[in-house]
Amino acid sequence: MSEDLDRILSIEESSLNRNREIDRILACNEQDFFAITEINPLTTTFDVIPSLITKIYRKKSLLIHPDKTDHPRASEAFDRLKKAQKVLATTDESEQDFKEKQRLMSIYAAFHSNEVPLSFNDPINVAIRSKVNEVVENELAHSELERLAKVSEETRKSEIQKHLREEVELKRKMESEWEKTRDTRVQNWRKYSNKIEKKGKKKKQKPKVLA
């Protein structure tokens, strides 16, 4: 009986840990890959990150995998973890992921203080992540505004192009209709010309002289 109870409690604790980790990841800014993976870039050298993220990803992916939990947003958290692993693991400087990693590290470096605690959840580190989050959010907002402006401009250009295409199509149809009625117009013109010519001949006839 005691063994069964211990097993049940162990399962419940494991499930609770999974849900807590999923909620923690979802609470992070989805672009702060260091926060998602609980890596402090201010206390971790750049070259070590790829190998470190491999170990962390293996552990966390097993913990929050959607097949191992009934959390309704497990898939979303897992996707964020995969994205973070992809960005932080890259070592190819030509890759966009590498540039994203460098950019994020530079934001963290801007808030570097003389004393950075090793503990990830130390209040100082929490405060730094909060400031980083603000910068990232502002960047995302700016990017979204640029995207909307670009979409608006593309929509405007698309409408202009559509209008021009409609004008060209209308002109083509008018020319086609004009060509289709060419024979009819020629015939009508000839009839009209003949009619005018006949009237002219009648006017030129000499009047009859009465005896």
UniProtKB/TrEMBL annotation:
Residues 32-112 form the J domain. SUPFAM superfamilies: Chaperone J-domain. Residues 173-211 are annotated as: Disordered. Residues 198-211 have a biased composition (Basic residues). Residues 173-185 have a biased composition (Basic and acidic residues). Pfam families: DnaJ. This is DnaJ domain family protein. The lineage of its organism: Eukaryota, Fungi, Dikarya, Ascomycota, Saccharomycotina.
